[in-house]
Amino acid sequence: MKKILTVLLVLALAMSVVCAKGAEEKKVGGGSLVIYSPNSDALVEAAYAFGTQYGVDVQVLSMGTGECLQRIENEAANPQADVMYGGVNYANGINYAKFFEPYVAAGNDKLPEAYRNQGGCVTRYCLDGSAALLINIDYFKKLGLDPDSFKGYADLLNPALKGKIAMGDPAKSSSAWAELTNMLLVMGEKPYDEKAWDWVAKFASQLNGVIISSSSAIYKGTVNGEYAVGVSYEDPCVGLLKDGATNVKLVYPAEGAVWLPAGAAIMKGAKNMDNAKLFMDWLISDEGQKEVAKSTARPVNPEISNTTPVMLPFSKINVAYEDLELCGNSKKAWQSRWTEIFQAASK
Fold this sequence. Notes:
CATH class of the largest domain: Alpha Beta
Largest sheet: 8 strands, mixed
Number of domains: 2
Radius of gyration: 23 Å
CATH topology of the largest domain: D-Maltodextrin-Binding Protein, domain 2
Order of helices and strands: HEHEHEHEEEHEHHHEHEEHHEEHH
CATH superfamily of the largest domain: Periplasmic binding protein-like II
Helix content: 40-55%
Distance between the termini: 92 Å
């Protein structure tokens, strides 16, 4: 009997070593991770930092949110990527949930309740400023306009700016959609009322029939002097300032600017599922949040501050708060209404 017990004990110890080794190997990572992402270069660098830390061969395919979602839908039977990193906002998390793997990352319970994954598929990892108006100082002076007098959305209706504004398509781009909902929130007498839609119609006329298909083309075109104003978002605009651009100025609308939690999600049936889950865990860990803090986005963990010196603190911005549920549930209807307004304004 002692012999049998000894043998069983040895086997149990051996199995525990094997299991511990397996768990350690899973934690270490290795292998590959394929990511679809609409994120700016600075946030993409954070994904590569994850790969370096865990020995994972990270491949990031950068494209707009609309293209990411279209690919995910087309490839549902045979996913070619493991993670969508960025662009998974409240509405997309709901509307595309069937394509994403339910997963709650480790440490989710440590985040502020408003930014947690509530048992679904979206891991929120940073705060994106929806409203960032990038002004080309030289272009403004060429038009005889004072860049310092430009304060917000109302100034976009200046007749001198007609046809000189870069704006994305809210029906296809997550950043443009966030900009539209920000406008609807703050440009009426009440949030999302008809007066706000009236203002949106006037703004659509200012675009002179031109809509930009790529989010990056907006801020890059503005800094390169193609547009006087780029209706963009905070992350890449701050990135330009951080990199030393002196011909542009970032304006947060005086009427109010919204910050939304940016999300990532795992593809259902991902080929590198373990690494995808590890990436989600890492994104909201202290290590991951510190990498996010090096970028031009604001970490979702309030205890970790962004380290970019050119980023304006919240205390100096009129921060507005969006009704996420209303905007998410209204997305398709509002996108259709925007398209109708833009098409009518472009005739």
